[in-house]
Amino acid sequence: MTPPAPCTYEQARNREPSAYGTDAVNSLRAIIAASLVACAPAVAADDSPDPRAILERTKTTGGTFTIHYWNSVTIPGETAFEEASAEFHQGDLHRVETPRDRVVADCRAQTGAHLFVAAGEVVEGPMVATYACGISTHTPILSLERLPDTVTKFGPAQRVRVTDARFIRDYTVLANGALVHTVFSENSPEQRVHIVAEAFFLEEAIPAGMAFDKASLATPFLPQGIRP
Known about the structure:
The protein starts with a strand and ends in a 25-residue tail after the last strand. The chain is globular, with a radius of gyration of 16 Å. The chain is mainly beta. The chain has a twelve-stranded mixed sheet with strand order 1-7-6-5-4-3-2-12-11-10-9-8, with helices on one face. It has helices spanning 9-12, 51-60, 126-132; strands spanning 5-6, 64-73, 81-90, 93-97, 101-106, 111-116, 121-124, 143-152, 155-163, 167-173, 179-186, 193-203. The protein has a single domain (5-204), classed as outer membrane lipoprotein receptor (LolB), chain A (Clam). The longest helix has 10 residues, at 51-60.
C-alpha cells in the first residue's frame, strides 16, 4: 500500500483530533472480557491522593498491552453511532486506531503522526503525542480532580476527572496506566454526554507484526468486526 500523503501542521492544526482512544478518546480509546481476569492487576498502582500522578502514569507507562473499546458517540446535529477502536502500547510506543484515524506516537520523545484515513493526510509533531499518549493534555486543563476508586472487570482502578474549555472528561485507570473507561461530557450546564468508551478486551501483549512508525500507518491493525 502507498504510504499516506503528508500535510503540514498549519494545514491541520484546527482539525479536531478523534476523541476515541486518542484520549481514547481524545483522544476514542477490548475481545472477550471474561478471559482477561488473569491479566488484570491485583491492586491499584498507589494510594496517592494527587490526581496528577494518575494522569502521568497514563502518559509514562512502560507496559505492554492491547485494548479494544466499544464507543458510543453522540455529536450535536449528527446521527449517534457506535463503533470499535483499539489501542496498542509497548514501552514508550503507542498506537491508536479508529475506523477514521490511525495514530502512532513515541510518548517519551514526544513525537507522533496521525493519519486521517478518508483524506489520506498525515499530521506530524509533538502535539500528536499530547493527545495519543494516555490522558490527553492537548488542550489546556482547567481543573483536575480525583474521583472515588472503583473495581472494573479488569481489576481495581483509580479515577480522575479532567475539565477543559470544551469537555468534562472522566477516566478510569488501571495500575499499568491503561484507560478502561472514558466519558466525555459537554462542559456546559446541561453536561450532555458526547462519548463513552468502554474497554471490552485487554491483553498484556501486542499482535505479531505490530509497528509504531509512520510508514506503518498505511496498514490497519484494528481487527474487523470486533464488538463486545
